Amino acid sequence: MIRELKNLYHLLLAVLASFWYGFPGRKLTVIGVTGTDGKTTTTTLIHELLKAIGKKVSMISTVGAVIAGKTYDIGFHVTNPDPWDLQKYLRQSVDGGDEYMVLEVTSHGIDQNRVWGIPFAIGVITNVTHEHLDWHGTFDQYLLTKLRLVQWAKRAVINRDDPSLYTHVNSYPTGDRLTTFGLGKNADVNPTIYSFTTTLPGDYNKSNILAALAVGQILKLDKQEMLKTVAGFEGIVGRMEMMQKKPFRVIVDFAHTPNALLQVLSTVKKTTKGKLIHVFGCAGLRDHTKRPLMGEASEQYADTIVLTEEDTRIENVSEIMDDISSGFKKKKVAHRYPDRREAIAYALKIATPGDTVILTGKGHEKSLCRGTTEYPWSDQETVKELLEKNAHKK
User: Which 3 state secondary structure label does DSSP give 4?
Assistant: First the structure.
C-alpha cells in the first residue's frame, strides 16, 4: 500500500510539474541511462562526448548536475530528483539554449513515475545485477522495471554481454531501434570497431565506454573525436579515485552492490603487490538480501576485511555486519569497527608498502546517515586527514 501511494504521489507531482514547466523535455534530445552499475560514468562520458564537439548539453547524475553550464552539487543519497525539481532542471536547460540532456535514471525513478512526461530519444541499460530487491521484490521485477526505459525510448542501447538481460529478450526493441554494445565481437559496438585507449581500469569501465560510444554512434558523432575524448577522460569523483599511490595505495570507490564489488576488487587485486585491505559496510533499510553476497565478494579478493557503517539509518550496525559476514564461505574473521572513521584509521595503520586500501560504498557522497540524521561526511577528506596525521607522527 505504501509503495502504491508513493508511486501515485510522484505521478501526480510529475503531471503537475510537466504542465507547470511546459513539458521542457520535448524541446531537448533526452538520453536516459539506467543499470545497476556504471550509470554515472556512462552518463558523464556521454556528456563529455557531446560537449567536446561544441554541443550545448546538460546532465543530471548521482554525483551532480550540470544545467545550462552551471554545476549543482548533489552529494546525498539521490540520483533522480523529485519530479518538480527534475522538470525545473529541464526547463532551465531549455532556457539556457541546450540541445541535449543526459539523464541518469534509476529503477526507483522509473517505478515511482518520477520521469513521467520526459520523452527519451535514447535509452541505455549498462547492466542489471542484484540490487533494490527491498523495493522491487524480485530480481525479475527489478529487471523488467529497467527494461521500461528502453521500451519508452525511440532508440535503445543494451549491454550484449549481460546474460540477465537476455532472459527477457522478447521485451527488447527490435530492428533499427536496437544497438548493442559489449566486449565481444557479436555486439554492434565493440573494441574491434572502436579501438579506444583509456586510463580507466577494468573491463567494467571498458563496457561503460562502449555504451557511451554506442550513443555517439546513434547521434552520428565523429569517430575520431569520440576516441580522442575517451582517451582524455580521467573518470569522476568517488569512482576508483586514487587518494595515495605510495608507499601503499588508497582508493575510494562507490561500489555498493555485489557485482560492483566483484568488478572493482578483482581489478584492484591484479595490480596489488601486497595485501588488499577492504573497508566497507552496507546501507540500512535497504536490500537485506545483497549483504551476504557483498561479504562473499569481498572475501573472494580481500586479504583483510574491515567492516563498518554505511548509512545505517535506524538499523543496528552490528546486525548489518553480521548479515555481511554470513556470506563468508571461508569463514574469514573480519575486523569490525562500527565507526567509519575508526575503521579507516585501522586500515591505514596496518597497511604496509605495496598494499592497497580500498574504501567502498560512499564514493562521492557528502553525508553519512545515522538514525534519522544526515551528518557531514567525506571518505576522501577523512583519508587525507588521517594520512596527514600519520605523517606528522613519523
Answer: helix
Cβ pair 254, 95 in contact under 8 A = no
17 touches 119 (CB < 8 A): no
Domain boundaries, position 117: 2-232
Strand arrangement of the beta sheet that strand 100-104 belongs to: 70-73, 64-67, 57-60, 100-104, 29-34, 120-125, 155-159, 178-181
Q: Give tens-digit pLDDT for 84-121.
A: 999 999 999 999 999 999 999 988 889 888 999 999 99
Distance CA 168, CA 163 (A): 10
Sign of the C-alpha dihedral computed for residues 186, 191, 194 and 198 taken in this order: positive
Do 322 and 173 share a domain, yes or no? no
| Number of separate domains in the chain | 2
pLDDT value at 74 more than 70: no
* 368 beta partners: 375
Q: Are residues 196 and 56 both part of a single domain?
A: yes
Do residues 201 and 89 share a domain? Answer: yes
Q: Report which DSSP code applies to 169.
A: G
Which of 203, 232, 261 terminates a domain? The answer is 232
pTM for the full predicted model? 0.90
Instruction: Write down which residue in 232, 250, 276 finishes a domain.
Output: 232
Question: In this structure, are strands 249-253 and 276-280 parallel, antiparallel, or unpaired?
Answer: unpaired
Average pLDDT over residues 42-67: 95
* Residue 124 and residue 153 in contact, taking contact as beta carbons nearer than 8 Å: no
Same domain, 170 and 299: no
**Residue 340, all three cell numbers:** 567509519
Any idea what the CATH number is for the domain that residue 352 is in? Answer: 3.90.190.20
Q: How far is CA 201 from CA 29, 215, 242, 251, 382, in A?
A: 30, 21, 11, 12, 24
CA dihedral 282, 287, 288, 294 (to 10 degrees): -50
Q: Give the Å distances, CA to CA, from 377 to 64, 316, 362, 365, 368.
A: 16, 19, 9, 7, 6
